[in-house]
Amino acid sequence: xxxxxxxxxxxxxxxxAKSQLRERLSLQSxxxxxxxxxxxxxxxxxxxxxxxxxxxxxxxxxxxxxxxESGFGSGASHLVTGHHKIHDKLxxxxxxxxxxxxxxxxxxxxxxxxxxxxxxxxxxxxxxxDKLNHASLIDGVKLSDAQSSRYPHCDISVLETRLKKSxxxxxxxxxxxxxxxxxxxxxxxxxxxCHKHKAYLIVDDAHGIGVLGQxxxxxxxxxxxxxxxxxxxxGTFGKALGGFGAFVSGSEVLTSYLVQFARPYVYTxxxxxxxxxxxxxxxxxxxxxxxxxxxxxxxxDYFKRQCKDKNIELLxxxxxxxxxxxxxxxxxxxxxxxxxxxxxxxxxxxxxxxPLNGDRLRITLxxxxxxxxxxxxxxxxxxxx
Length: 385
Ligand SMILES: *Cc1c(COP(=O)(O)O)cnc(C)c1O
What we know:
The protein is α/β, with parallel strands linked by helices. It has 15 helices and twelve strands.
C-alpha cells in the first residue's frame, strides 16, 4: 500500500465505523418502478424519475431516431462545434414552457449551479443561501468570489435581517423543493423580500419541474412567479423529465451572459444531441399529458393518508419526496437492509448528505407506482422499522 492509499484507507475506515459508508447498487434493468439487481427484483421507491419517463419506449424510439441523424458523441464544447440544432430547439421549448424569454442547456444540474454562482456573483457581492441547499449550490458559492452567508432552513425573518443589514449587491439562492426533505421554500415570500431589499433571486427547481403545478411547470406555476420576480431559474432534465442534463431560464441577456462567462458551460463537452432530443421529447410529453402529474399527486396523497392511518410519522412534505426520520446511521442501515430483503428499495440518507442525526429513509413516489405496490411498501415499513 502506498502512503496515499494508507491515508485514504483511514478515511474510509472512519466513515465505515460511523455506518456511513455508501454502496453502489448495480442495476441489471432499466430505471423504473421495478428494477433488477443481482438477479433479484425490487420495488423501487428511491428514484427521482417521478413521472416514470426514464425507460419509456416512445422516448427510446425518439433517441434512436436522433442517433441515426447525429451520431452519438457531441465531440466538442458548445462554443466550438458541440452545439447542435436540437439544443436550440430544446432551449426554445424550455423557455416557452416556463414563460421566460430564454433558456440555455447545461450538461448537468451540478454544472448549471456552479455556472450561475461563479459567473454572476462578483467580488464584493453577498450571496445569502438556505442552509439546506443542494451540494451543487454550496459548491457554486465556494467557486464564486462573493461573500456568503447561510440562513436557517426557510427562515424568512433571518433572511430579511441579513438582507437589511448589507449594502452590497445581493443574491438569494434556494432550492424550491428541498431534495432530502421534500418541503417547499416559501418562494412567494422570498421573492417579495428580494424585491423589497433589491436582491436577485436564484432558484434551483430540480425537484419542482414536472412535479409542482397542474401542468408541471414547477415552482413558477405553483407560486405564479414572473420572470421579474424570479429572474434566475435553474432546473434539470434528470429528475421528473426522466433524462439527463439541465437548464437555466430567464432573460435573453442572462442566458447570453452565461454562454460567454460561465466556465462550467464553456469548458465542457456539450450534451450529446440524442440526449437533448430525449429531453425535448419528454418535455413535450409532460406538456401534452398532465394525467401523469395527476397520477403522481394521487400516489402522494394515498401514501400520506395511509401513513397517517397507520401512525407512520413522516416529515412534512407534499411532494414525491417523503422522508421518514430515523436519526441514527446504524439503525437506518439495519432498517434499510431489512427492507431490501423484503424486495423494497428506498433511499438511506446519512450524513454528510444530511446534518448529523438527520439520518432518514428517503421514500420517493412516482406516477408508475400502483396503490397495491404502495401498500406493500407500507406493510414492510411497519414490519422493518
Ligand atoms: C439533482 C440535483 C442537482 C444536480 O443535477 P444533476 O443534473 O444531477 O447534476 C442540483 N440541484 C438539486 C436540488 C438536485 O436535486
